[in-house]
């Protein structure tokens, strides 16, 4: 399978310099470039809209078991809300009522998500979406077992891979 070239990876570095360091690792099929580019655009928009409170640095993009894996470091500056949350968590831990804290966190997440949680959910959605996009050409595909390994391929690319495997 043809992987994304260094030139294609450089496009990501050029288009999203705040997300991609020069030395990030990229080992995916060229068919997922559009997916990764769209994800990068959405993350960079969230970073821009955070007024410097959110920092995302991509470490590695790869394929595992037919699914996109997008590894990055996400950090968020300590805002007043996060500071209050940490103080409340410490108090609950001291009083041995972490069940209350966890319940309140679950309720909070239904109505308000931190920037870090939003980025994590976005990455999760795109990784799941990759299982329906061919790794090689970007057409609609299916994640199936192929030569003892899971791959996400369209019918045409699967047939080509099978014929290459038999020759």
Describe the structure.
It contains 6 helices and 5 strands; from the N terminus they run αβαββαααββα. The protein is an alpha+beta fold. The chain has one domain. The strands form 2 sheets. The chain has a 3-stranded mixed beta sheet with strand order 1-2-3, covered by helices on one side. The chain is elongated, with a radius of gyration of 20 Å. The mean pLDDT is 87.
Question: What's the layout of helices and strands?
Answer:
Layout: H1 6-15, E1 25-27, H2 33-49, E2 54-64, E3 67-76, H3 80-94, H4 98-111, H5 115-129, E4 142-146, E5 149-153, H6 155-166
Helix pairs in contact: 2-5, 3-4
The portion of residues assigned to helices is: 40-55%
Strand count, sense and closure of the main sheet?
Answer: 3 strands, mixed
Number of domains in the coordinates? 1
Strand order of the largest sheet: 1-2-3
Segments where pLDDT lies below 50 for 5+ residues?
none
Number of helices: 6
Radius of gyration: 20 Å
Query: Which outline best applies?
Result: elongated
